[in-house]
Write a structure and sequence with these properties.
11 helices; globular
Length: 290
């Protein structure tokens, strides 16, 4: 559906936005800087995403859709790894917990070599950097595997119902949920594994299987995996119309069709969150045992 946007309407909106910015600037200058920075970042990202979607729709070939999906998966993986590692560093935890145990074994060895003398310092630092790079690569593979599994299962089944032109918005919505879901899953699982080490050893010593000893951490991680969607679904829809539903109406869809698509997407995102969470946890242990 094409719109003929009014120049005066756009100008009025911009003037009102500038007035709101000026008012907020008088009240809280520091927070206004953050608002402007976030707004500029969102605008740049929106232009980039919109440009990519425009190219995909313009080319209208299957490989362009797959290329778009690969690029979005890479960006989502990079964001998840950055957020996970940033929180780990902010909390003061060492990188030797969870997925990074093998990578930090190399890093600790490198630090030990560095302490022996200046001759071995460069070799030790290089070994430490290699361990850090190895840990980051493994974490990226875990995140990418979770995202890909969730998108493949939920997105693939959903595309059997919707037309091919819905590929970009469907997988865009799934990746938006899964990026936060996988991040919270791995963060929760790693924290739980760290804090329940003694309890796991107690269970194993009393005859529990390895899976039984891991179940409390798995349960917490999967609970965290579905939290982003639950928060979205818990909003009072009669008060706040879902953005996706409103966007479909603006795009010319019928209200009934929009409701059906939103319900399908909610079901698909729940499936994707669970599948991605299970896959990420499984790949975490596969990476540690490799």
């Amino acid at each position: 559906m094409n719109y003929e946007l009014s120049f005066w309407g756009i100008a009025l909106t911009l003037v009102l936005w500038l007035l709101a910015v000026a008012l907020f600037l008088l009240i809280d200058r520091r927070e206004m800087r953050r608002v402007l920075r976030v707004s500029a970042l969102m605008a740049v990202q929106l232009v980039a995403v919109g440009g990519g979607a425009w190219v995909v729709y313009k080319m209208h070939v299957w490989w362009a859709c797959l290329l778009w999906l690969v690029v979005m998966l890479v960006l989502a993986t990079a964001w998840c790894v950055h957020e996970i590692r940033g929180e780990r560093q902010a909390s003061g935890k060492t990188a030797g917990h969870g997925l990074l145990m093998k990578g930090d074994a190399l890093a600790m060895k490198g630090e030990a070599l560095a302490m022996k003398g200046e001759t071995l310092a460069m070799k030790g630092e290089a070994l430490a950097m290699k361990g850090e790079a190895l840990a980051m690569m493994r974490e990226a593979l875990v995140v990418a595997g979770g995202l890909l599994a969730g998108c493949a299962v939920a997105g693939g089944s959903l595309m059997l119902t919707l037309p091919g032109g819905c590929f970009v918005p469907v997988f865009g919505v799934l990746l938006a949920f899964l990026s936060v879901s996988v991040k919270q899953t791995l963060q929760t699982y790693q924290r739980s594994m760290l804090h329940t080490e003694a309890h796991r050893q107690y269970l194993l010593a009393n005859g529990a299987t390895r899976l039984e000893s891991l179940m409390p951490s798995v349960r917490r991680a999967l609970r965290a995996a579905v939290q982003p969607q639950l928060k979205t679904m818990a909003q009072p829809l009669l008060v706040a119309m879902p953005l996706l539903f409103a966007g479909m109406l603006l795009g010319g869809a019928s209200p009934v069709g929009a409701v059906v698509v939103v319900l399908l997407l909610m079901a698909a995102t729940f499936v994707a969150s669970v599948v991605a969470g299970v896959a990420a946890i499984y790949l975490t242990h596969s990476a540690l045992n490799a």
